[in-house]
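Per reviewer request, we include the raw input and output of the structure prediction for the construct analysed in the revised manuscript.
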Amino acid sequence: MHTDMPPHDQHALQTLIETTLRQGYAISVKDDENKWGEPLRDYADIIDRVAESEFDVLALHRDGAHVGWLMLVYGNAPDELIADYADTPACQDLHDAWVAKMEAK
């Protein structure tokens, strides 16, 4: 994670990753060369690969299957971290769970 990231973005991103992992998903991060990394389930490994630019695209996997994607844009309001996501039940449920956690804090 980029060390210059504003605290509200750090909190929103950390909450999203924690929520995603708790729901049983693995996360792949698209790199600077537009290639997908391997699906990861380790929080520290994921944090090391995100927020190195103004945005990230994450792919969600469950039981070896790709179930959706999230586009994250940094520098906006914390509740706008997820700028777009796939129209799938998995992504909608994850988005709703993340919003609920953000509102609770």
